[in-house]
Write a structure and sequence with these properties.
4-stranded mixed sheet; 4 strands; alpha+beta; about 160 residues; Sufe protein. Chain: A; binds zinc ion
C-alpha cells in the first residue's frame, strides 16, 4: 500500500465520520436489531432500528468498535437509510457492493457512500466497509443472531 493509495483510502470524510460517528448510541424501543462481526479485522457493529407499518426506516442508530473504515461506513449507512423504505435500503446495498467490487455504478444515488470507493483496491478492507450493511440486512430480516463476514455470501 503506497502513500497515495492510503490517502485515497482514508479520505477526510472517512476520518471525520470515524471521529464523529452519526446516529451513534442505543435507539430506544427499536423493533429490529442485529449484531455484526468481522473477524478478519475485529470490527463489531450493533445496529438498532425502527421500521414503521409502511416498511419505512424511521430511525436507526449504531454502536461499535473497529477500524476507521468500519465505523465510518456504519455512520454513513445510518445517514443514507434513515427515512428510506426498506426496499430502497436493499437497493443501496446492492449498488454499494458493486462500487466496492470495482463495478461501474450510478454514483449519484450513492451520495456520500462513494468516499469508500477506494476500498475496492484492498480486498480485506471491503469486509470492513460492508460489515454494517450485512448487519443491516440481518436486522431487516429480523435475524437476531450475530452475522459474520466469514459466513454466508462471500463479500
Ligand atoms: Zn476493519
Amino acid at each position: 500500500m503506497n502513500h497515495d493509495e492510503l490517502s485515497e483510502l482514508y479520505q477526510e470524510v472517512i476520518m471525520e465520520h470515524n471521529h464523529h460517528p452519526r446516529n451513534y448510541g442505543v435507539l430506544p424501543n427499536a423493533n429490529h436489531q442485529a449484531a455484526g462481526f468481522n473477524p478478519l479485522c475485529g470490527d463489531r457493529i450493533n445496529l438498532k432500528l425502527n421500521i414503521d407499518q409502511d416498511d419505512k426506516i424511521t430511525a436507526i442508530m449504531f454502536e461499535g468498535n473497529g477500524c476507521a473504515i468500519s465505523i465510518a461506513s456504519a455512520s454513513l449507512l445510518t445517514e443514507m437509510v434513515q427515512g428510506k423504505p426498506v426496499a430502497e435500503a436493499y437497493g443501496l446495498f446492492e449498488q454499494f457492493h458493486e462500487l466496492l467490487t470495482g463495478k461501474t455504478v450510478n454514483t449519484a444515488s450513492l451520495g456520500k457512500l462513494t468516499v469508500l470507493a477506494g476500498v475496492n483496491a484492498f480486498p480485506a478492507r471491503v469486509k470492513c466497509a460492508t460489515l454494517a450493511w450485512h448487519t443491516l440486512k440481518a436486522a431487516l430480516a429480523d435475524d437476531a443472531s450475530t452475522v459474520s463476514t466469514e459466513t454466508g455470501n462471500d463479500l
